[in-house]
């Protein structure tokens, strides 16, 4: 990976957040950052990567905005004075949110924007995700995501939604969208669609934002639940990928490689949530991962937690994950019946779970078709490798009725 590509991955969100604070305009900020990276693409290969790529990008983008403001100073209705509000290094008003990136998340999650638009815009601006990567996270088409982002920017511009720190009273109303954004950033890092099995930069950024949220809102159990969930999942990162870059499923991971400090911190947060007795989806998911962190996994407890999760969040995806746990308790036939009627044809994991259950029941021909369907619905090379390996195994001789568990549904 080149220095420019790495800088884009690591610093795009930070640069946009800083420039939005300086410029007060989302479109201008993003355009300036993109122009700065275009300049970097010309200069860095010739002059070398600067010691501080982030500082170079932010300074160059800011200079682009200053030049633009000077050119357009006489145009009515423009934001000619925006950059002049803060001199270099001058802090903006901090308010309740002390971090540029976290502040931008709350700004993009303004209630005037639709839920899907809020999340799509923030993932674009903060994580630098492409429309394709966001579309995979939403399980929708790229055109839909692009339209949401365009409309969100237009709404911010036309309604003159200011870039400002929300008051303490406004924070809870925007919390649901903020938590969803942070978790989607984490998920894109943990199972990236970019070609890398894991993007530690996105995982680390999501956890950093989660810690900031926990400091900002220590009495919100769902904030603690999300932080616990990310810590518990991230504790397995050293065991998830082989030296050759292949994903290792949960059932096959070497637990001695798991980060016990992260597990202890995550489990302690789960216990704090339990004492609050205000259950929510992130807390329940964290509790499920806490159970997985102790060997052997108590699958009956996992099923009970998924029952609670499904009652709070009755979605097909939650039902799918519950079916994976049911298969460990009541067998593949019981779990396969639970998949009937789930509207998840576009979701590769649905077909992968179905294929695994069919294979365990000795229905190899149907399993082959399901694995093939899963392969066509994911672009992640690491996932594709696992699916091809499973497909080759089920096509091979002597597989019928083997009943061995492959665990394709457990990729974390």
Automatic annotation (TrEMBL):
For the RNA polymerase sigma-70 region domain, which residue ranges apply? Answer: 9-73
Q: Does the keyword Transcription regulation apply?
A: yes
Q: Listed GO molecular functions?
A: DNA binding; sigma factor activity
- Which GO terms of type biological process are on file? DNA-templated transcription initiation
Per the database record, which ranges form the DUF6596 domain? Answer: 174-273
Supply the InterPro entries for this chain: DUF6596, RNA_pol_sigma70_r2, RNA_pol_sigma70_r4_t2, RNA_pol_sigma_r2, RNA_pol_sigma_r3/r4-like, TPR-like_helical_dom_sf, WH-like_DNA-bd_sf
**Which superkingdom does the taxonomy of this entry point to?**
Bacteria
Per UniProt, residues of the RNA polymerase sigma factor 70 region 4 type domain are 105-156
Q: What Pfam families does the record point to?
A: DUF6596 (PF20239), Sigma70_r2 (PF04542), Sigma70_r4_2 (PF08281)
Provide the alphabetized UniProt keywords. Sigma factor, Transcription, Transcription regulation
- Would you identify the family this protein belongs to, as annotated? Belongs to the sigma-70 factor family. ECF subfamily.
Q: What is this protein called?
A: RNA polymerase sigma factor
Organism ancestry = Bacteria, Bacillati, Actinomycetota, Actinomycetes, Streptosporangiales
